[in-house]
Specification:
With 811 residues, the chain is an alpha/beta fold. Helix content is 59%, strand content 11%. It is built from 32 helices and 16 strands. It has an eight-stranded mixed barrel with strand order 8-9-11-12-13-14-15-16, surrounded by four helices. It is elongated and about 130 Å long. It starts with 8 loop residues before the first helix and ends in a 5-residue tail after the last helix.
């Protein structure tokens, strides 16, 4: 149980003062109805100043004791004190019994209340408004002119009906109704801008202002009708009108959203005054009004017309801005905001709004964008948008959600219609694109979700798999970041399920897939796998297998490649293709790389202690290479394990190198300057060339295994391998070929001059113990006299507990 501290004594004193003031106001209100001894009502009415004076004091205390909004509350408090001063003077001079309209010095105190009140309300309102439009100045001009016209018109009419009144009396009697009218208009404007839930402060202040205006109007009616002195209701109105500001001043403010200068509240004041000005002009046709009144009324109407013209321009600009806000700047298609609004309307239609959502993502667009530049990528997206439009039916909505992701909403469609439209889109995108003189081929993956069926379909419960094969299927089904979690409405559910279907199509390379509950279950399992992988870092679940690289000229094993595996508690041993993409997408691939580097370098240290001088190659990713602290961490690990830089080789794919060539070149230069070897992995599958790679400080090219596979039945593939090896040697680079599985492939690679080979022909990837035995046997075979280190070699695959504890992630 939390016990809140008691408020300071001065705030408790304010609360007591408020309760006392409420008690006095209720007592005086009851007494004003002549309840009790004769004369008590008159005495109660003469004591009204006590409530006004007390309320003003509480407002001034609010300004003095609480930070924020001090000036408006100080003005309101001063206005109430001035009002109470007028009551005191009136009681002292007239005994509180006069009900005439004759002026006195008390009117000064009463009239000063109005401007103080106007200023306070405007200041409080200004804090709630986001900004003021320039057209507000026209409202002010129309208001001033309208008030002037109304005042002069009332003055003329009153002067003609009350010829005995002097100028002072006439002025006083005209000002009060105009001031009260402004109070009412001000309250209407406030509630028009803030709505009917402005907060308790504004309800109390609004009741106070309307009460003042009502009491003054009632007094004017009573006096003009010649009735007796005002009693009861009139006194009660004044009492509670002066009481409520004291209550509003100390209401604890709640958070309220900012208001905008929009809605009917903005035009209330100029509209009412323009109507009154028109009334004066019409009246001037039958009644002789002074030229000044007619001129002021005409000026008010003109200002109102100017305000209307300004409003028309603002609405036109707002309409244009609204269109721009819903249009994609690059393609001119609808953007995400417009598409989500259309989906929201579809959800509002419910079952009656049958439609299909197609979510389309370009395959390998990022590679094109990074290799050829953003300008080429943007030009390609424009052409893609145009082609998709040509494949749609009239009335279908196409939007670009962002990047290379497009969405199509097919109204009055089912799964068959979605399939036909998707086939047309895929066919038209399969044709080559000419972008700035470069011919590009683009493929896409499309996922479909049907409304309302896929919105209301129950999700399958997540299944618990026990094999790595099942896990691989679940991960491949959703090999990309999931969409935002579905909210309570069907819009997000529909988007998420189309997203799941799209990544299913991308995973199996079918081009198109329709959502079914099993896909979503796989997506949820993928999310679980991401969190399990994050938790597995640093716990020993990650293991490193090694695969040898053999020098074809000598037959010696010169280096090994470190390949990470995940020993999952329930799924068993998982290969890197199942979890490395997850770590990249989830943003912790650098932590994983750090752990693999630590394990691999620790094993390299043990091999060197055992007399095995082996270089370890470790794969890194683009986020590692673009991290400015990565070279420092690598050097720190080498120093930690006491290894020379030549003991480590870093492998990075050609595509990752081309992602940011300038930064990649700087990072690789820093690593190579320290003596660390650099290898380009999977060479030949990207968009770069040897000429572009020359700009990067690399030592080794690893030719992708797809080239070696094609040499079996395509003589041209062998010639590509031969020419690549020859050109690489001419550039001072060594060549490694992956995927060697036959003796024939070894002979062919030796004939073309390849330096190193790697593949199942020389051995499968295995744990450190297996590779250590392999290295030992190879060394004994190549150099039989060197057998004295066998005992030391046997220890290289059995790290001690202290050795294991020393391996960690250096971030």
């Amino acid at each position: 149980m939390t016990i809140l501290p008691a408020p300071p004594w001065r705030f408790r004193l304010i609360r007591v003062a408020q309760m006392l003031l409420v008690f006095v106001a209720v007592l005086l209100a009851v007494a004003s109805f002549e309840v009790g001894p004769p004369g008590l009502g008159a005495q109660a009415r003469s004591l009204r100043f006590c409530v006004a004076l007390g309320s003003g004091g509480i407002c001034l205390a609010r300004a003095a004791l609480v930070r924020g909004e001090r000036l408006p509350w100080a003005l309101l408090g001063a206005g109430l004190v001035s009002y109470s001063g007028g009551i005191i003077y009136h009681n002292a001079t007239a005994g509180g019994q006069s009900a005439t309209l004759g002026p006195s010095l008390a009117d000064i105190g009463w009239l000063l209340f109005y401007p103080a009140c106007y200023a306070a309300v405007i200041m409080l309102l200004r804090r709630r408004l986001v900004r003021l439009h320039r057209s507000v100045w026209l409202d002010a001009v129309a208001g001033v002119l309208g008030i002037a016209a109304l005042t002069s018109g009332l003055a003329v009419l009153m002067a003609r009906s009350n010829a005995e009144l002097d100028v002072w009396s006439l002025t006083i009697n005209v000002v009060y109704p105009v001031a009260d009218l402004l109070l009412i208009l001000l309250v209407v404007t406030v509630f028009g801008l803030l709505g009917w839930r402005p907060g308790r402060v504004w309800w109390l202040l609004g009741a106070s202002l309307v009460g003042f205006a009502g009491a003054d109007s009632l007094l004017l009616v009573i006096v003009e009708a010649g009735w007796g002195p005002p009693v009861g209701v009139l006194s009660t109105l004044w009492l509670f009108s002066t009481l409520t500001p004291a209550l509003a001043a100390w209401v604890r403010p709640r958070w309220q959203p900012s208001a905008r200068m929009s809605g009917w509240g903005v035009i209330t004041v100029p509209l009412v005054l323009a109507v009154l000005a028109l009334g004066l002009l019409v009246l001037g046709a039958t009644v002789d009004l002074p030229p000044v009144t007619v001129a002021l009324a005409a000026a008010t109407v003109l200002a109102a017309l100017a305000r209307a013209a300004c409003t028309f321009v603002e609405v036109q600009h707002l309409t244009e801005s609204s269109v721009l806000a819903r249009t994609d700047d690059l393609t001119g298609l609808a953007n995400r905001r417009a598409f989500l609004e259309r989906l929201a309307r579809l959800e509002h239609d419910g079952a009656a709004g049958r439609a299909v959502l197609l979510l389309l993502d370009l395959d390998r667009f990022k590679t094109i964008n990074d290799s050829l530049g953003h300008h080429t990528g943007d030009a390609l997206l424009i052409q893609v948008g145009s082609r998709i439009c040509a494949a749609l039916r009239p009335g279908d909505l196409l939007a670009r959600l962002g990047g290379d992701e497009f969405a199509v909403l097919l109204d009055n469609a089912d799964a068959d219609v979605a399939r036909r439209v998707a086939d047309r889109i895929l066919a038209i995108l399969a044709e080559p694109f000419d972008v700035g003189g470069t011919t590009l081929h683009v493929t896409a993956s499309i996922g479909a979700a049907i409304h309302p069926g896929d919105v209301t379909a129950d999700l399958l419960p997540p299944t618990t798999t026990t094999t790595a094969t099942t896990t691989a299927a679940a991960v491949a089904t959703a090999a990309a970041p999931p969409a935002a979690a579905a909210g309570p409405g069907g819009t997000q559910i529909l988007l998420r399920r189309a997203d799941v279907a799209m990544y299913a199509a991308k995973a199996d390379r079918s081009g198109f897939a329709t959502f079914h509950p099993g896909l979503d279950a796989g997506s949820r399992e993928r999310l679980d796998l991401v969190e399990q992988l994050r938790a597995a870092l640093g716990t020993g679940q990650l293991e490193v297998f090694y695969q040898v690289k053999v020098a074809l000229a000598s037959g010696r094993t010169e280096s090994v490649e470190a390949l990470v595996r995940w020993r999952h508690p329930t799924h068993g041993l998982l290969g890197p293709e199942l979890f490395i993409p997850l770590a990249e997408q989830a943003g912790f691939i650098q932590m994983l790389t750090g752990e693999v580097l630590g394990i691999a370098l620790d094993q390299a240290r043990r091999w060197r202690v055992a007399g095995l001088d082996i270089t370890v190659a470790v794969n890194i990713t683009a986020p590692d290479l673009l991290d400015p602290e990565f070279p420092t961490r690598v050097r720190g690990l080498l120093t930690r394990f006491g290894l020379p830089p030549t003991a480590l080789e870093l492998e990075i794919t050609e595509t990752a190198l081309m992602r940011d060539q300038d930064r990649s070149a700087r990072m690789l230069a820093a690593l190579r300057q320290h003596g660390i070897g650099i290898a380009v992995d999977d060479y030949g599958v990207g968009y770069s060339s040897l000429a572009r790679l020359l700009e990067l400080p690399v030592d080794v090219l690893k030719l992708d295994k797809s080239f070696l596979r094609r040499t079996v039945d395509d003589i041209r593939a062998e010639e590509i391998v031969r020419s690549t090896v020859r050109l690489a040697h001419a550039l001072g680079l060594r060549i490694v070929v992956e995927g060697v599985e036959t003796a024939a492939a070894v002979r062919m690679l030796g004939d073309v001059g390849c330096d190193l080979a790697q593949g199942y022909f020389f051995g499968e990837p295995g744990p450190a113990k297996t590779i250590t035995e392999h290295l030992r046997r190879c060394r004994e075979t190549m150099d039989p006299d060197q057998t004295t280190a066998t005992a030391r070699t046997a220890a290289a695959d059995h790290p001690t507990v202290a050795d294991q504890a020393s391996v960690g992630v250096t971030q």
